[in-house]
């Protein structure tokens, strides 16, 4: 398992970050629910339609639980919760939900665990993933 990267030049205007280079992941494409269902069908006893139905029901129930104010934890996958963006007001009494809430957003925190020796959180989805240069690009220091 590996992801591909390319280098991008910073567009920041401040002198410290101006013209510096950073790595950016290059997507190799998208995979949608029907394709995932086909793959899962070949690895399990579930039929493709059953997998699609379960995913649809999961999404619907996620929406319901989030709209009820719950944080939804899918063990081994991650946590979903809703947040709001709002305007600032000078006084608490001035705040109007209909006027000052700009939007509701869904946040996702991937599952992971904290490494004891460093304290860094290792996300489940990025564990054991290698990084490689995009093919055809000049190799740089690895």
UniProtKB/TrEMBL annotation:
Alphabetized UniProt keyword annotations: DNA-binding
UniProt signal peptide: none
Source taxon at top rank: Bacteria
HU domain segment(s): 1-111
Gene Ontology MF, one: DNA binding
Keyword DNA-binding: yes
Protein name: DNA-binding protein
Organism, as annotated: Hoylesella timonensis S9-PR14
């Amino acid at each position: 398992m590996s992801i591909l990267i390319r280098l991008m030049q910073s567009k920041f205007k401040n002198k410290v970050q101006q013209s510096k280079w950073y790595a950016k992941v290059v997507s190799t494409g998208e995979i949608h629910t029907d394709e995932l269902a086909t793959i899962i069908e070949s690895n399990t006893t579930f039929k493709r339609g059953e997998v699609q139905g379960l995913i649809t029901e999961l999404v619907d129930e996620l929406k319901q639980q989030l709209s009820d104010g719950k944080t939804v934890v899918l063990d081994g996958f991650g946590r979903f919760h809703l947040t709001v963006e709002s305007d600032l007001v000078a006084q608490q009494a001035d705040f109007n939900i209909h006027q000052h809430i700009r939007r509701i957003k869904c946040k996702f925190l991937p599952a992971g665990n904290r490494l004891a020796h460093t304290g860094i959180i290792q996300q489940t989805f990025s564990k054991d993933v290698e990084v490689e240069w995009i093919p055809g690009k000049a190799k740089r220091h690895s």
